[in-house]
Design brief:
Immunoglobulin-like; 52% strand; single chain; six-stranded mixed β-sheet; mainly beta; 607 residues; 6 domains
């Protein structure tokens, strides 16, 4: 968010600067120095011989004072250009000569704002060039190894520190994330692999982004050869004719097929092309016709001279999915949840699909950012019509467009639909104090409720802050542990909560601890139309006047009841009830002429 320049003058030179040296790959870390936040490549390496350096400020109110590039004590010349982008000033520094490999360069930058307020200190970082590819010294399992167990110990060793490793197995996945190392050169992993021929591609990247790759093949054989369907992946095709079916085997095999179970598998009814692991079934022409479905029978003779077979039902399904609606809940995010700005995106489709979303439009389905929660392309059972996913990567004071596409089992894609999400937490931060949250004369708890996730403190003075109970826990409701008060009287407690914006809200609450009962109430029964106290000529109601006193917390109200008072009859004719008034009509009575009645009451204080 753009800073107000006047505020920057008061707070010093505090806008963000990002320093980037272009490289084939890099990750980032943050360095905070003298009020200036700087992002630089974590590795401090580049594999480009004249990489430009970008200094990106979060404000456009920036003037460059000086900069320098040194190789040891030797200054190096650079050209500098600048431009504005999205309210940010960006400086581009280009060296006039190539970097010398394996030598350390020192880049320094110093700037000021438009008021002339300079940075507290210059910002500098070190980097060096590396153009040499790493070498892979050793790979295990070695080429051609046969395993009779699925638990495989894998090793990759390189000649220099490695930043990233990929261990990709053909027709399987990349196992690189499972490898661990203590020195960034020697990597090991325990792999649990299924049966099959494992054609592996191992790639390593050094600190500058240079890479090297090797391939090898080993075999895991603990059971019979498996035949599986590669295309169509979910047994549905979008076209009726010219379908090329792909069958996979986990071991090298020679395969035949039939779409008529009565025909021999080796009949010359069609063509199978194969690399030994992937077998393409073309049919007699340019592909197989499926209308509305076929049963495909496959038999294979594997590399162990064993015969295996399987069958697949494949259906023609030309239905193009439609996204009926897509919406966000909430569409305007006004508060943080567990420290994040969160919205749930919901999409409804006309037929069972998998759905993905992205923050950029017009992407092909495969390249979109992420699947909706629970939409798993490896699970055919996860296709559904109602999709939802939680996004918690929003930044405050931004507007977002989220684009959604959905795909059927026949790999037909819907038209893209979008939903708008806006973030704005600038509304008032509110805080409510509930004292006592629970009460008895000696024990009570303090409770604070806020409209956004906060951490809170409380105390008997502004010099003593407590975080017991859930007061120190991020949330909207904070309750203290039970507090014991030795003495009755008036107390003031103080409460403060820190909101996601960094703002503190401070409030106090005064309350009374009352440990004594109120005085016994006085009761007068009178009829405003009768001059005789405690007499009434009415038979359906009476007028009662209560009075009592409590010097600590005051009187809240009265509980009362009406009873017959004859010697032989003490029936209750009005059940216990509560009133906050000290003068009221007690109605809906049935009074008998000449009978005696009594009203019982007790006072309730405000504690």
């Amino acid at each position: 968010m753009r800073k107000n320049i006047g505020m920057a003058r008061l707070s010093g030179f505090s806008f963000l600067i990002v320093l980037i040296i272009l490289s084939a790959m890099f990750s980032m870390f943050s360095l905070k120095a003298s009020g200036l936040s700087v992002f630089i490549p974590q590795s401090n390496f580049t594999n480009q011989n004249q990489s430009p350096i970008y200094a990106i400020f979060s404000s456009d109110a920036v003037e460059l004072v000086n900069y320098s590039l040194f190789l040891g004590s030797q200054p190096k010349s650079m050209n500098v250009t600048s431009y504005l982008s999205d309210g940010r000033m960006i400086f581009v520094f280009r060296p006039l000569e190539p970097y010398i490999e394996n030598l350390v360069y020192n880049f320094t930058i110093f700037a000021r704002d438009f008021f002339g307020i300079p940075m507290t200190d210059p910002v500098e970082f070190l980097f060096q060039a590396d153009y040499t590819r790493p070498e892979i010294l050793e790979v295990k399992p070695s080429n051609g190894t046969l395993f009779s167990t699925s638990n495989i110990s894998a090793v990759v060793k390189a000649n220099e520190p490695i930043r990233k490793l990929s261990y990709n197995i053909y027709l399987d996945k990349d196992y690189g994330d499972l490898f661990v190392t203590s020195n960034q050169r020697d990597f090991t992993a325990n792999l649990n692999l299924s049966d099959g021929v494992k054609i592996t591609n191992i790639t390593v990247w050094d600190r500058a982004g240079n890479n090297a790759s090797v391939e090898n093949t080993f075999i895991v054989h603990t059971g019979p050869t498996r035949i599986f369907l590669i295309y169509p992946p979910y047994n549905e095709v979008p076209t009726k004719t010219n379908n090329i079916i792909q069958i996979g085997t986990n071991f090298y095999a020679d395969c035949r097929y039939s779409i008529n179970k009565s025909e021999p598998y080796n009949s010359s009814t069609g063509t199978v092309t194969s690399d030994g692991l992937v077998h393409k079934i073309v049919g007699t022409g340019s592909g197989i016709t499926i209308d509305p479905a076929i049963e495909l029978y496959v038999v294979c003779l594997d590399m162990f001279n064993e015969m295996v077979n399987n069958s697949f039902r494949i259906t023609y399904n030309p239905t193009v999915p439609v996204i009926n609606n897509v919406f966000a809940d909430p569409q305007v995010i006004t508060e943080y949840t567990n420290g994040k700005l969160v919205s749930t995106i919901i999409a409804n489709t006309s037929v069972a699909t998998l759905c993905k979303y992205d923050f950029s439009p017009n992407k092909v389905f495969e390249s979109m950012l992420s699947y909706f929660a629970g939409d798993n392309p490896e699970d055919a059972g996860s296709f559904k019509t109602l999709h939802s996913t939680v996004i918690d990567t929003f930044i405050d004071n931004r507007s977002y467009t989220i684009y959604v596409k959905c795909r059927t089992k026949a790999l037909l894609d819907s038209t893209e639909k979008s939903v708008q999400v806006r973030t704005d937490t600038s509304g008032n931060n509110t805080m409510a104090i509930i004292v006592p949250a629970d009460y008895n004369p000696d024990l009570m708890t303090m409770e604070v409720r806020t409209n956004r996730d906060t951490t809170c403190e409380y105390g008997p003075s502004m010099a003593t802050w407590l975080t017991d109970g859930t007061f120190g826990v991020l949330g909207k409701i904070h309750r203290s542990q039970t507090i014991y008060f030795d003495n009755a009287g008036t107390y003031t407690y103080y409460f403060r909560c820190r909101f996601p914006s960094g703002e503190y809200v401070l409030k106090n609450k005064t309350f009374v601890v009352d440990k004594t009962e109120p005085e016994t109430p006085l009761i007068n029964i009178s009829d405003p139309e009768s001059r005789l106290l405690n007499y009434t000529w009415r038979t359906d109601k009476i007028h009662a006047v209560f009075s009592s006193n409590d010097n600590e917390s005051g009187i809240k109200g009265f509980n009362y009841t009406v009873m017959r008072a004859d010697f032989s009859n003490t029936t209750t004719i009005k059940d216990w009830a509560f009133t906050e008034s000290n003068s009221l009509w007690i109605d809906n009575l049935t009074l008998v002429n000449g009978s005696r009645y009594k009203v019982k009451a007790y006072a309730v204080n405000k504690a």
